[in-house]
Amino acid sequence: MTGEVTLTGKVLPVGGVRQKVLAAFRAGIREIVLPRKNSKDLDEVPQEVLARLRFHFVGSIEEVLPLALDRRPRAPLAGSGAARLARARARRVPERRMPARS
Length: 102
Prior knowledge:
Layout lengths: L3 E2 L5 E2 L4 H10 L4 E5 L11 H4 L3 E5 L2 H8 L12 H11 L11
Parallel strand pairs: 3-4
Antiparallel strand pairs: 1-2
């Protein structure tokens, strides 16, 4: 997560939305919370990436908290770096340990 919130709870726009969205996509993140004023910045993101992500546009911290603090586990996107890492961990052979010398 990145961004700024005022003392009154207003969510402020952020910069570098294209780079942040692409990095999140590569990491296997499927849902992204963005300030409402940044919705126009998604024009810079490729359509094939946008089609595989879910966006939540918020204006206040009250809208952010239920989204950010949801504890349901989510599976990583297929083909993402996180998905490849999960597959590699599942294939990993248990390490053999040598018996201790007396």
